[in-house]
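Collaborator request, handled under Task 6.
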Amino acid sequence: MKLAMIGLGRMGGNMVKRLVEGGHEVVAYDVNPEPAKVLAAELPAVSAASDLQDVIAQLPAPRAIWVMVPYQFVDNTIGGLRAAGLAAGDLIIDGGNSNYKDGQRRGAELAADGMLFADCGTSGGVWGLKNGYSLMIGGETQGIAMIAPALTTLASNDGKGWGHVGPVGAGHFVKMVHNGIEYGMMQAFAEGFELMKAKDEFGLDMHQISRVWQYGAVVSSWLLDLIGDALEQDGELSSLSDWMDDSGEGRWTVSEGIDLGIPTPVLALALQMRFRSREHETFAGKVVNAMRAGFGGHAIRPAEDGE
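Structure tokens returned to the collaborator:
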């Protein structure tokens, strides 16, 4: 199929490459024109768009447009597409980390003019190009059917790693909870490694333990693999600060638990530890940042800037 990708950052650019590898044609656009030009020069199936009107002009109707921009810019992007000629029957997919309530609003606004909207939680980080993504998509059946070939190409496990999880809003709700769980899992690993590191009398080797746990242990996982890789390069994680950002999903997850009266103590405390990381440095915080850098390519402050 032919579709557009708007937003060519560390996720969007790799998604374009994976789509092309799967036989799709992609119209690529970013507010910075260089990434689209580079992709178009490298891949014959990619054409660079000069602006949103050019995106619309290059796509056959009904159009499928994947938006992969920070959640703060989704409304402006959709507004620009509508002004550029988006028409009834066209589909917009928001693949970023938007709040699910914003997705529900956007879906209703577009539906009023006969346009389709889907919200797709996207997990896989910088490894998605090679391994595929886990995709949690919400929307009407008609829209999901339009984008299904691209979802199958992007998904991990030979196309099995995507699911139509519910109506508009459901995709980003599921991804929100996913990221809340991610916070808790990373924090548990971090606290465990800090506890072992503090047991001076045993002289434990953190790298050795991480590698032993990778084989047959109940806690073996991709996150543990990332810890082991980071410790292999720097056993003290001395190049990392423990200053951790939070991009919104953790806060939204905890807030939703409060609204629904569902206890989420692990997720709430993991979020609070993100706030704590901005006050003083700990080894546990460095362990979390090693995982964040490994799976998502998140920018991590160097040690001297995080103290």
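The cover message to the collaborator said: "The beta strands are 2-6, 25-29, 46-48, 64-67, 91-94, 116-123, 134-139, 162-166. DSSP finds 15 helices and eight strands in the chain. Please let us know whether this matches your experimental observations."
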